[in-house]
Specification:
The structure holds 2 protein chains of 2 kinds.
Chain A (H helix, E strand, L loop, with lengths): L9 H5 L17 E6 L3 E19 L12 E19 L3 H11 L4 H4 L3 E5 L7 H8 L2 E4 L2 H15 L4 E4 L7 E3 L9 E6 L3 E6 L5 E7 L3 H11 L5 H10 L7 E2 H5 L13 E3 L19 H27 L3 E5 L7 H15 L4 E5 L5 H8 L12 E3 L26 E7 L4 E2 L21 H13 L1 H11 L6 H21 L9 H14 L7 H24 L2 H17 L5 H9 L5 H7 L7 E2 L1 H8 L6 E5 L5 H16 L3 E5 L11 H14 L1 H8 L3 E3 L14 E2 H7 L4 E5 L1 H4 L11 E8 L2 H6 L6 E7 L15
Parallel strand pairs in A: 1-4, 4-5, 8-13, 13-14, 18-25, 19-20, 19-23, 20-21, 23-24
Antiparallel strand pairs in A: 1-2, 2-3, 3-16, 6-7, 6-14, 8-9, 9-10, 11-12, 15-16, 17-22, 24-25
Chain B lengths: L9 H7 L8 E6 L3 E9 L5 H7 L2 H12 L2 E2 L3 E3 L5 E6 L2 E11 L3 H10 L8 E5 L2 H4 L1 H8 L2 E5 L1 H15 L4 E5 L10 E4 L8 E6 L3 E6 L5 E7 L3 H12 L4 H9 L8 E2 H5 L13 E3 L7 H6 L2 H27 L3 E5 L7 H14 L5 E5 L5 H12 L9
Parallel strand pairs in B: 1-7, 7-8, 11-16, 16-17
Antiparallel strand pairs in B: 1-2, 2-6, 3-4, 4-6, 5-6, 9-10, 9-17, 11-12, 12-13, 14-15
Helix pairs in contact in B: 4-6, 7-14, 8-12, 9-12, 12-13
Chain lengths: 785, 390
């Protein structure tokens, strides 16, 4: 890394004020630190524990229950979560930042005194004494390359949509890559002052296979000699405006056109800077190129050179994935574009140039993990906290560079430890091609506008609900406002930069909202609503079961599916439904049934499904359930009872954590107990273990089958039927997912816009039954499941 | 390759016009920066009388003009040290001359050709290089001759084989290469009789890399736009120099370590874990973003750094191509190497060091002229001057 250019920034540096609420959060609980000090940017990593609230449900024993007492008690409990914080700031602010950290390390000060801070990056040595004197920590230097690799393995494994390719003229220039069960092998090309190329074959095996001295330092150095640009960013700014054709000799300058015999197109670079030789100018000619042109030519020269060397190495080692990082790239569209062009050209499309959303944090993450317990990949998995993380903030391609405001000088990444290991669902056909989301709002501008509007409109209602869930809290009103403010700002940001947090999807919008609610201590805004719905539905279950028992076999099978669908109408997540329920407080199960589209449905495989039921019973059905209340109690349980009676074992999988009015695993446990009290078949099945409840691992109304709870995944290996219920699990996600076993996707399209888009109307029905593809490949390594 | 089968008398040659093209015998390679021309000067006239009888006035004028000068106009140069004496071709004996001038002087050259009335004795010029396409129209209009265009790679390879088969000691390598003691290096002849497979790295304005499996089996495997044109272009911008010779002279006494950031500048010494010696360049021009360092470097240092940057990059690409192709001998040619032992020694050292001695860098005395020789070979293939190209 190059040294910081400190000639013109000292006065500015002193004036910085840190907004303590936003950066360096939870510092008072910080336990361990690591730092990566580069020439221009420094990144501090620290580990904290944070207190969050969690809804707790306690059932009341049957004999202690009064007839009018509630089904279960909802209380909020404090919960400790583990969190990793990463903060990126300009190296010139390092002393101010260390001072700030020192002042705020109130509780942990004694704990960390005399301990070690892992440090990496070119500046680790330079700032060693300052760190020791300010924080009282002993600096332990870690190898830069090892840290980078550790960091990239960590990000690729833990963060969905971490990697993307850059395609300048596509609907979205940022094309995020689907997670892959196996991230190896890959090349990491780190473009700092020079370039290092590292081959990474596994968690423990990596090797620097080569590099080149022509890197960011060459661009910066030559650019400083040849233009008046002050600093790297100014040089890039010049390059964006330049035309390299005035400086470079192209194939057409030599051939007069294309060189068809070698398939060299006429605008291909033949000789970089070939036109700036004096003898190619007539005497007295004016110089036909500008500083901008020179900067652009320089950028092309360096990018092409790096691209070529990277491709030669990729080819030699037979590797298709090449990740680029380092300060030369730093998320700048112009650089990503030239690098991508070079890789495509040199590899003829065989090799893919990939970039990382959190590329700047690789070193800091690696240094933090080095020797830490958190490096245990089996024990620890992490998820990006959307509420506490900054997104990609690059300006749109080829537009003028945005001058960064002082408040955005800091960039943050927060990762929350997942409670349990999440793995791929084993029954996916072709897991490498699996993409949970059906519509990518990054690419689909019309859908993006619609959904962003939709989420913004729903904001007041969600905040209101959150408020109601904490009637006794003194600061709930304030927190609800903070939530609204934060989420609204995020929605606005996503309008202009939809790629900021990876692919924008309905799922990511929902997840971000949950994160923001949790951020302001609204653990489960719908807990009371869900409780009431569950109680109400349980009262109607007995009658419903009687009705069904009275039907003939065929009629009952139809009614059971219709029941699941009618139950699914009850959804506080859908604005059409909430409007309906607001209008009619008495809106009941039969009203819902009446709302359903008449057959044939939008997708109607009911006949195929019933035909299948005439055959041998399934061994094991796994049902991914949706909402509380009528949905689970009146829709799903009767259906489950029928499956059990056929001799099919059933696993009900609900979310591990709350999201909207979706039933959670702990709520489902209580509800199941009550249902068992009402129905002997269910009761017996629970006792015999034929009906099991397994949490999904999720905390979202949508379902990402590349990240499901490992216990559930293991059980799913035996499943010969998967059932996905509701829009979140069967329409927004997984609509096109293919499975190795039979699958049934059931949902009511409660959103008018989405229904129209799929060719239906609001309350159109989707009943999609698929026999399952025979090929099977468990994507998880044997020891993980 | 054709060999001189018989020893027909010259007078007969002229009278009966057998299977050889009419004089003058020459080939031209029009590159992005330089035009390279080879010219065969017959010297096998028995006496002055026969000489006069055998050669029409126009040819004689051209011959005298070319052979009595070593510089033409303001920019044409004859590389006298490369002249091949007693060269035998198609039953004739003579001297093979090597001439070059900048491509931007093509218009002046065409005027000269016109003034010497070349079209009265020949109707075509055999040419290769990009300019063979670019200037075809000009040649037809100005000198009323046809520019026969031949593939660059075919010409390059046939030129290398022809010269190498005819001339002893054409191929050599640098022995005792030591980056810290340039004086110790010496040119050592290399026996190139059984060369296959080998890699050709032709460094002109840009660079082409060819993999050669046999005389007829070869292909372009890579290339780079960072070549001699880049060296000169950057040197002109950085130092204000005017010519390639000037740029090389500047570079000879410069110190690139004041400009480049070395491994030892970052790690204080060798980077042992990665086996990188401290003297390895970590970042070309890596010191130059610092204003004080910019002020402390000379033009010589900048020229040297440019030379080292371009040369090392070419070396890396050549080495990787050799690995990918499974080839151990790399022949570097092209006019970037002219008067440039610095680059040759750097390339020699880099090939040897980074491959632990597995790769060998080879050089040829007529470094930049093989394309032009190849074009001449094409002319000699023509019977009665008929076009033989498809």
């Amino acid at each position: 890394m190059a040294q910081a250019d400190s000639s013109h920034d000292s006065s500015y540096a002193r004036s910085i004020e840190l907004p303590p609420d936003q950066v360096f959060r939870n510092l008072q609980n910080a336990k361990r630190f690591a730092i990566d000090i580069g020439g221009s940017l420094a990144k501090l990593a620290y580990y904290t524990t944070v207190q969050t609230k969690r809804a707790h449900f306690s059932g009341v024993e049957k004999d202690q229950r009064a007839s009018d007492s509630p089904l279960y008690e909802v209380t909020e409990q404090e919960e400790t979560r583990e969190r990793l914080h990463f903060v990126k700031f300009e190296t010139k602010y390092i002393e101010q930042c260390l001072d700030f950290v020192k002042q705020n390390l109130i509780e942990s000060k004694d704990q960390i005194e005399g301990k070690v801070i892992k440090a990496t990056g070119g500046g680790a040595y330079k700032y060693k004494d300052i760190i020791t004197s300010k924080l009282g920590l002993e600096v332990e230097k870690e190898d830069e390359m090892t840290c980078l690799i550790k960091g990239s393995n960590f990000l690729l494994r833990n963060i969905p949509d971490e990697a993307f390719s850059y395609v300048r003229h596509a609907a979205s220039s940022y094309q995020f890559q689907a997670c892959e069960p196996n991230i190896f092998p890959y090349l990491l090309v780190n473009i700092g002052s020079g370039v290092s190329i590292v081959k990474v074959e596994s968690e423990d095996k990596c090797e620097r296979i080569g590099g080149t001295a022509m890197g960011g330092g060459t661009f910066w150095g030559l650019g400083s000699l040849l233009t008046k640009a002050k600093g790297f960013d100014e040089l890039l700014k010049l390059a964006v405006k330049g035309d390299h054709r005035n400086v470079d000799m192209l194939v057409r300058d030599i051939y007069g056109g294309a060189y068809s015999a070698l398939a060299l197109p006429e605008d291909l670079l033949a000789s970089s800077f070939g036109k700036t030789a004096r003898n190619s100018l007539e005497k007295g000619d004016e110089v036909p190129y500008s500083e901008e042109d020179i900067a652009k030519s320089l950028l092309h020269m360096i990018s092409n050179g790096i691209g070529q060397i990277a491709c030669l190495y990729a080819n030699l080692h037979k590797i298709k994935k090449v990740y680029f990082g380092g300060y030369f790239i730093r998320g700048q569209p112009v650089t990503m574009n030239t690098i991508t062009f070079a890789i495509n050209y040199w590899s003829k499309g065989e090799v893919q140039a990939l970039f990382l959303r959190h590329e700047g944090y690789l070193g800091a993450i690696g240094a933090f993990l080095k020797g830490a317990e958190e490096d245990d990949t089996l024990k620890y998995q992490w998820g990006e906290n959307y509420a506490g993380s900054s997104g990609l903030s690059s300006p749109p391609p080829y537009m003028s560079f945005v001058t960064r405001g002082r408040s955005s000088t800091f960039d943050m990444l927060e990762l929350d430890k997942l409670d349990r290991p999440l793995v791929y669902l084993p029954s996916l056909v072709c897991p490498t091609a699996y993409h949970p989301d059906v519509v990518d709002l990054t690419k689909d501008a019309e859908a993006r506008e619609y959904w962003l509007d939709c989420f913004e409109e729903a904001l007041d209602r969600v905040a209101e609900c959150a408020l109601k869930s904490q009637p006794n809290s003194v600061d709930a009103v304030e927190r609800a406002e903070q939530f609204k403010d934060k989420y609204r700002k995020r929605l606005h940001g996503l309008r202009s930069q939809p790629f900021a947090y990876g692919s924008l999807t309905v799922r990511s919008l929902l997840d971000t909202r949950e994160h923001c609610l949790n951020e302001f201590s609204f653990a489960d805004p719908y807990s009371q609503v869900k409780q009431q719905e569950n109680e109400l539905a349980l009262k109607l279950l007995g009658k419903r079961l009687q009705q069904l028992s009275a039907m003939n076999w065929y009629g009952r099978q139809v009614a059971l599916i219709e029941g699941v669908l009618a139950g699914n109408v009850f959804d506080y997540g859908a604005k059409e439904v909430t409007a309906l329920m607001d209008k009619n407080a008495e809106f009941g199960f039969h009203d819902a049934m009446a709302k359903l589209q008449g057959r044939p449905w939008l997708i109607d495989n009911l006949d195929e499904w019933i035909e299948r039921l005439k055959g041998a019973p399934h061994e094991l059905a796994v049902i991914f359930v949706d909402n509380s209340g009528a949905d689970i109690v009146l829709g799903i349980f009767p259906f489950v009872r029928e499956l059990l009676k056929r001799g099919t074992n059933v696993i009900l999988s609900a979310n591990s954590k709350p999201a909207l009015n979706d039933i959670t695993h702990s709520e489902l446990m209580i509800v199941t107990e009550r249902v068992a009290e009402l129905d002997p078949d269910i009761s017996l099945a629970v006792t015999e273990g034929r009906l099991q409840l397994l949490e999904s691992g999720g905390a979202s109304p949508c379902l990402d089958l590349s990240r499901v709870d490992h216990v559930l995944a293991k059980s799913c290996k035996q499943a010969d039927l998967l059932i996905f219920e509701g829009m979140g699990r069967a329409v927004h996600t997984n609509l096109q997912a293919q499975f190795t076993c039979e699958s049934l996707k059931l949902a009511v399209l409660k959103n008018k816009w989405l229904a129209n888009r799929l060719g239906g109307e609001v309350f159109s029905v989707m009943c999609k039954y698929e026999p399952g593809s025979k090929q099977s490949s468990d994507p998880n390594p044997p020891d993980e499941v | 390759m054709e060999h001189n089968m018989d020893s027909q008398r010259v007078s007969e040659t002229e009278k009966k016009r057998p299977a050889t093209p009419p004089m003058p015998w020459s080939g031209v390679d029009i590159g992005g920066t330089l035009v390279k021309l080879v010219y065969f000067e017959p010297t096998d006239f028995i006496n002055a009388e026969q000489e006069y009888e055998a050669e029409v006035e126009t040819l004689r004028t051209i011959r005298h003009y070319l052979t009595s000068n070593t510089a033409y106009g303001k920019s044409g140069i004859r590389d006298v040290h490369l002249t091949i004496k007693d060269f035998k071709i198609h039953g004739r004996t003579g001297n093979l001359h090597f001439i070059r001038f900048p491509t931007i002087d093509m218009p002046a050259f065409l005027q000269l050709v016109k003034s010497k009335n070349l079209s009265s004795v020949a109707d075509k010029i055999c040419a290769t290089g990009g300019g063979a396409y670019k200037f075809a129209e000009d040649v037809r209009e100005i000198v009323n001759m046809k520019l026969e265009k031949y593939d660059e790679l075919d010409c390059l390879i046939s030129g290398i084989h022809f010269i190498d088969s005819k001339i002893p000691n054409e191929c050599y390598y640098w022995g005792n290469v030591d980056p810290f003691n340039s004086e110790a290096c010496e040119k050592i002849p290399y026996d190139f009789r059984d060369p296959y497979p080998y890699l050709v790295v032709n460094i002109g304005s840009g660079v082409s890399v060819l993999s050669v499996k046999s005389q007829t089996d070869f292909k372009r495997v890579s290339g780079t736009s960072l070549g001699g044109g880049t060296f000169l272009g950057l040197c002109c911008l950085l130092t204000g120099c005017q010519t390639f010779e000037e740029a090389i002279e500047l570079a000879e006494v410069g110190d690139h370590t004041k400009v480049d950031k070395l491994v030892r500048d970052i790690y204080g010494g060798d980077y042992d874990r990665l086996h990188l010696p401290g003297s390895t360049v970590a970042s070309s021009f890596g010191h130059m973003n610092v204003p004080e360092k910019r002020e402390s470097v000379s033009k010589n240092d900048l020229a040297r750094a440019t030379l080292v940057t371009i040369t090392n990059n070419i070396g890396s690409i050549a080495r990787m191509c050799a690995l990918n192709e499974g080839i151990e001998r790399i022949v570097f040619v092209g006019n970037f190497l002219r008067v440039n032992p610095l680059s040759m020694k750097l390339l020699s050292y880099a090939m040897e060091y980074w491959s632990q001695g597995a790769l060998k860098a080879l050089f040829l005395e007529h470094e930049g002229y093989f394309g032009a020789v190849g074009a001449l070979m094409q002319l000699m293939k023509m019977e009665n001057g008929e076009t033989s190209q498809s």
